[in-house]
Each structure stands twice: as structure tokens, then as C-alpha cells.
Amino acid sequence: MRTTHRRRLSATLASATATTLALAGCGSAEPVASTGRADGSITYSFWGNPARAEKVGTVIDLFAAAHPDADVSVEVAEYLNYIERMTVRAAGGGLSCAIGMQSTFYTRYAEQDVLRPLDDLIESGEIDVSQIPDEVLEAGRVDGTQYMIPTGTFARLLGYNVDLVAESGAPPPTDDMTWDAYADWLREVQAGLPEGVHATEIEAPNMFSFTSWVIGHGEEMFDEGGLAFDQELLEEWFRFWLDLTDEGVTVPVDMLAEQNAALELTPLAQGAAAVGTRDIPQLHITEQALDGAGRGSEIAEVSIPSPDPGRSANVLGTNGISIPTGCDQVGTAAAFIDFFVNDTEAALAFQSDNGILTNTRAQEALVDDADTPDSVRRNVTTLRELTDSGDLTTTTYPSGLTTLTTELSRLYQEAAFGQTSVEDAASAFFTAAERALD
Amino acid sequence: MTITMERPPGRSAAPPPPGRRRPLRSRRDNLAGYLFLSPWLLGFFLIIGGPMVASLYLSFTDYSVLGTPEWAGTDNYERMLTDDPRFWASLTVTLTYLLASVPLVQVFALFLASLLNRGIGGLTFYRAVFYVPSLIGGSVAIAILWRFLFEGDGLLNNALGSVGVDTSHSWIGTPDTALGTLVVLNVWQFGAAMIIYLAGLRQIPAELYESASVDGAGRARRYWSITLPLLSPVIFFNVLMNTVGAFQAFNTAYIVSNGTGGPADSTLFYTLYLYQRGFVDFEMGYASALGWALLVLVAAAAAGLFALSRRVVFYGDER
Q: Which of residues 267-296 of B touch A (CB under 8 A)?
């Protein structure tokens, strides 16, 4: 009797395990071929706020008018929740047919065969990428295979509060500053600022600012073996910011928590710091928040400093759309991506809400359109100027970047609060990278 | 007196002989019972039991969520114990939080329950007011409010400034004080424990206090010798529930630290670290191992409390 019960219990547990693991979607499906027709129902998942969701809704209405047999619904979540949700759903094989991706994290999905290669859809003309510059398209490729169609680009720049800098008596920053010249300029700004206002936010915990530092120094961030730069370069980065904090030029280290808050609550947006790095589209949001804070009203931007002014440290990032391997409505998904990237009306409706549009023809239409807000026009113009002048650079982000981003911030904080030395913090970062990039 | 009971005729007391089927009615009763139980059974096996078994299996694998789990033996557990300083850091933070907040909640809740038990006017109003933080205290809104309260130019510093204490110290931005703000937030949610204490206090017979007064016992003596012993089962219950809750604390630290457990890991609760490993670093095998280690920890803490209760908890039916 007991043996029978035990067998039953074992069988139940085994079935529960099998079912759960099956639900967890171990193994990947073969990609489905496109029918070449947009006549199915798909869902487009992306990250963003209600304002972006509204703009996407308009794009979908336009798509529905152009493709009456197709049906597109949307699913939207805040950025971090979105990444978490996508990963869990990818494990369960339940991804939507069109999913928002970013150059900073899509590699993980591509390398695990979660994303469908899109080259056949490009070759057949279902997705037209002729208006996207090849260097931008490259941001959606892994080992030469296109997994993401870039829809928007962003670049990290140095944003400064025009009024606060003027109040300090220092000249405005320039595009060709070295890091040393930048530090001297910050000291000059600090000397003229009122009490309680600081020259700059602390950039040390920010992975993208650090990436600019590494690339500006002529090194690569990552290679096949993991981190491609020397540990000394990270130590110098930490010391650069610790010294400025000691001099009172940066916000105090205990304000890092506030610096990591929502964009509108950061020291730059609140007028508590005169300078901080932001992606191009974020500059406008920061400026809007600054209006309400009552300390200045304009955020202008210059290039990130670089030890060699001829070597750009403005790192380009890319947002895009991918089709997962398990999608069975490839024709409709391809048509939707093609429409999103190439339709001028859609471009005018979306207004570069998630990065500057990658389609050069759509960019021109957006700049020329009378209804385009000035801030959007300025963002597009700035990025085009940077592109034309060659003051942009790209990098490839590996799987595990999220872990490194967290580790950089944590270890800098430990060094800044005196819990560890700069050398030990840098060493711990390299140890963490070995596991994360393995 | 002897009472003899006779079985009604036709009913056999002996179990059915081996191989003989049980009566139809009995089987129908069982079937009905299982049918009524089936929603819970389905829920248990599909939503709790299955994932638990799967996570136990995954804890012995290297599993990045998007790939296939690869058997890793006890690597995850070995790494946890010997090669992961953040595991120990998160455990230290959680135990510090537990040891600070659980006793404070009990003291605060018992103190107010004792005050409310003295028959003051407006008892219902006060009870509701004190209970409100328990309802909203763990919410995202309150965690965000906590940030505004304790940051550098937050409400606390403004209040201190108005009485001449000028400070720009960020209580949540400094490792030395960040965890303390979360302890305060937890203590602020004393309402649920207070209600239970109040109910317990109401159960203590008034005659015992009267008898003790007649014997010359003062207020402190009555509290020490009557209230606390008779309330000890309730205290034990509250301590147990609060301890388990402290091990599971997540929301407030997640919101207040933006999910980082910062500054410098000072608010890295165990569950937050588990979450980071699973859903930020996508090390789901390791996160599963952390989950099972937490289960063992909570079980050990509960077992310890039960063992202690045999010595310090007084049940009224004891002789």
C-alpha cells in the first residue's frame, strides 16, 4: 500500500516537473516562413509611457487603414518591467510577434535563438531598409545576421543648464574638451554657483558614461573574451569622479539615490546640478522638468569629453523591432515593421518618441513638418549634425550588460562611501564581468 | 458507572476483508469530497507544487531563462556559501532588519494596545487610525513617499531645519542610515499586530487583576505577572508572523532603492538579491538555490521560535 502511494507521489511530482519545464519552454522553435501577406492578428510589445502608447496607437490606426485584413494590438510596460516580462515570456515561448528591442540587450535574445533572422524578409522586399544608413542597420546585427530593424537612435551627450552656467560666470562648454579641460571647467563653474548647487552630477556609476570614457581613450569596451580594456582605466575613472566629489564640484555622494530616480527628479532636472549626461531625447524631458523647478529654463548640449578631440566619445544606441522565432504571423509582423520604418505619416505621428527615426527620408519630413514640436525638430537636427560631422561612435553590447551596469554602480558606491578601495572595487568589477560575460 | 454501547444490528465494526470493495456510498462521499477539494488541489499542484518541484530541480542547474537548464550538481549552493559575498551581505541586511524591526513592532503595538485597552473614549476611531498604516504601509505609494521624506532636501530635514537643526544628510542615500529608514517604515505598520494584541488583552479575565489588587499587587506587578504570561501565546504568534514577514520583505527596499539594494548594498534584502539574480542577471538556477536556502532559513527560524515557545509561552490549560 505504502509503495503504491510512494509511486503515485513520485509519478505526480515527475509529471508536475515535466509540465512545469514544458511550460517553461525548454528548447526553441524553428522560424516560420513568411506568407508575404499582411492578413493576420499580431501584438506589438514595447516599453514606454502612456504618451508613447498613444502615438503608437495612431501609427497602428494608419497601418490598419493601409492593411485592412491585418489586426495589431499593443502591449506596453515601463522599461525595466518590459525587459523582465520579455525574458519570462521568451522562456515560456509566448512572445508577441513584434517586440521592441534595444542594442543594449537584444544580443542575449539573438544568441539564444529567441529572435528570428530577418535577412530573408529584407531580401524579399517585405521589409525595406534602403533608407536606413548601413552603420545604423549594423546595430541590429549579430555575426552578420539581422535580428533587429533599427527604428530609432539615441546618443549620449553632455547636457548643461544654460542659465546656471551663465550665472556662474564661466563660458559655455565646448565640443572639443578633453577630460582634464572638462574638470577645470567644472571647477570654474562651481566657483560661481550659489550654495547648495553643484557643477555636475556624478557620472561614475553610469555604464554609458563609462563606455564613452573607454572609447574616448581609444579602447574597446568588449571583445570575444569579455572586457577589452585594462583595469587601470576603470580605476582612473573612479578616481576622476571621487576627486571631483572631494572638491565639492559634484553633487554629494549621498545624492546618488536621487540621481538614479526618474528623469524629472534628477539633480540636473531639479536645478541642483548644472551638468549631466543624457541621451538626446532625454534632454528635452529634462528641460521640461527644469522649467518647473525654477532654476533656469534651457538645457543645451555638447559632445562628451574625449582625451583626443578627434576621437568621438558620443556613443550611439539603437532601439528597434524584432520578430521572435515562434511567431506564426511573420507576413503581418514584417508588414508592420516595414510600415513603422518607412511610412511618412506614421513617422509624423510617432514624432521620434523612442529615439530619432532611422529612416533618413522620414527624418527630413519630420523636420519640415509645421506640426513637429521644436524640441523634436532640435533632437533630429542635433543627431543629423553629429552624423554628418562624424562625431558619433558605436559599440556592441554583449549579453550580461545589465549585470555589469548594476555592478559598476554598486562598486563605485562602495568606493565612494569608503567601504572598499578603488583598486578592490575595480578588481571586483572584472571578477563580476568574468561570470556575467561567460 | 459503566456504560455499555451496543452497535445497531446490521452494521459491522470490522473493516471490509482484503480485496473487498468499499461500499458505494462511502466511495461517493469521497468523490464528492475530492470534487469540492479539486479547485484547491489544482491550484496547489499547478501553481505552487509544480513550480516548487521545478525550482528545486533548477536550483541544481545552470539556467539563464532563455536557454536550456544544464545540470550543475551542487555548484549553486557551493557558490552561495563560499564564493558570493553579496549572499552574506544580503543575509546580514535581512537579519539586521529582522532583529531591529520585529521587537520594535511588538513593543510599539503592545504599548498602544495596552493604552487602548484602558477603556478610553473614541476607541473605534483610534483603532482605525492606528490600523491604516498597516493597510497602506507596504504600498508603492508609501515607499515613494518615504523617499521624499528621508532624502537630502526631504520633509524630515525641512522639519529639522524649522527647529534650528540644519542638515542636508540624505537618510536614504547614506549606507549608515538607509536601512534604519526601512525599519521605521516597518514599525510604522504596527496596526495589525496592535489589533491582535488588543483582542488578546480583552480575553484576560478581569477577576485575575482584581484578585491581584486585593493581594496588594501594583500595576507593574500585575502587568508582569498576569498580562504578559496570559498574552504570551499572542506575543508568540505576532513574533512568528513578523519574523516570517521580515524574511520576505521586498517591496519597500525595491522602491526606495530603485531595485538596487543601495546605497552600497545597505538595503539589499535577501529577497531583493534573489530577484536581482533571477530577473536582472537571469541566473535563474542560482536564484532558485537562493529561494530554497531562504525556505530552510525561515523554517529554521520558525523551529527555533517554537522550541523557545515551550519555555516562555504560557497556555492557560497548562498544569
A: 276, 279-282
Give per-residue pLDDT as tens, A58-74: 999 999 999 999 999 99
Q: Of the candidates A87, A255, A257, which has its C-beta nearest B66's C-beta?
A: A87
Query: Does residue B13 carry a pLDDT above 60?
Result: no
Closest chain A residue by Cα to residue B66: A91
Interface check for A402 against chain B (CB to CB < 8 A): the answer is yes
Q: Which residue pairs from A6-9 have beta carbons closer than 8 angstroms and sit at least 24 positions apart in sequence?
A: none
Strand partners, A279: A156
Residue B121 pLDDT level (bands cut at 50, 70, 90): confident
Mutate to test the interface with A, among B282, B284, B286 (most CBs of A within 10 A): B282
**CATH superfamily to which A155-315+395-436 belongs:** Periplasmic binding protein-like II (3.40.190.10)
Q: Which CATH superfamily is domain B75-312 in?
A: MetI-like (1.10.3720.10)
**Rounded CA gap, A248 and A258, in Å?**
17
- For chain A, where do the domains classified as CATH 3.40.190.10 start and end? 41-151+320-377, 155-315+395-436
> Tens of pLDDT along A249-307?
999 998 887 777 777 888 999 899 999 999 887 887 788 888 766 777 889 999 999 99
Domain parsing of chain B, residue ranges: 75-312
Judged by a CB distance cut-off of 8 A, whether residue B69 touches chain A is: yes
Contact assessment for residue A386 and residue A314, using Cβ atoms and an 8 Å cutoff: yes
pLDDT given for residue A13 in this prediction: 46
Write down the pLDDT at residue B18.
56
Which strand (E) or helix (H) includes residue A223? Answer: strand A222-223
Amino acid at B56: L
Task: Report yes or no for ipTM above 0.85.
Answer: no
Q: If one looks up domain A41-151+320-377 in CATH, what number appears? A: 3.40.190.10
**Between A155 and B144, where is the model more confident?**
A155
Q: Do the strands A41-47 and A98-102 form a parallel or antiparallel pair, or are they unpaired?
A: parallel
Residues from chain A that touch B147, judged by Cβ atoms under 8 A, are 257, 261
Q: Is the pLDDT of residue B154 over 70?
A: yes
Give Cβ neighbours of residue A334 (< 8 Å, ≥ 6 apart).
Answer: A34, A38, A118, A121, A126, A127, A323
CA distance B278 to chain A (A): 10
Residues 95-114 of A with CB under 8 A from B: 108-109, 112, 114
